[in-house]
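User: Can you model how fe (ii) ion sits in this protein?
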Amino acid sequence: MLEIIKDKLRNNKLRLEHSLGVAEECVRLAKHYNLDNKKAETMGLLHDIAKGLPFDEQERLMIEAGYDTSISHKIWHAYVGEYICRTELKITDEEILNGIKYHTTCHPDLTPLMKVLMIADMTENRVRDEEMGHKLREMSLNGLNETIAYKLNWMIKRDFELHPDTVRAYNKYKGYVKEE
Ligand SMILES: [Fe+2]
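Assistant: Here's the modeled complex, given as structure tokens:
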């Protein structure tokens, strides 16, 4: 699997390090929350598989998959990643597929493993060493919903172009946001 990932990521060292770091973080959190470690690792390794593809190729695959290309192009890689895992890698596990698809936007119906992936994407510290990552790493062992809520709150405040799933997820989890 690593060879396919390397190839898709165009052998980009930082992207590969990020994927390995996210997989490590997924396992750390899965162990803590008694979730399937193996599945968590797979999700982490594969989540950005489409990120190395040029945008015209991502757009082509979005259309092929029947996904709406009017969503921000920064989100495409998550949808295309799911499509590649489903069609090329023949992954059938819906939790892995949907975890990848929603790892950037979030979604109101995430399972604990999908939440783990969303958190791990920001807490890996091989490539990302940001204040937000430290904060989430600290929080991540004290509740998945609280940590997801914190990340969503940060996304909303950052004034990103928000996907409707992000807004729906925020509405669901905002009760877990602890004001500082
Ligand atoms: Fe990522």
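A couple of observations from the model: Residues 18, 22, 47-48, 121 surround fe (ii) ion (CB under 6 Å). The first helix runs from residue 2 to 8.
User: Helpful, thanks.
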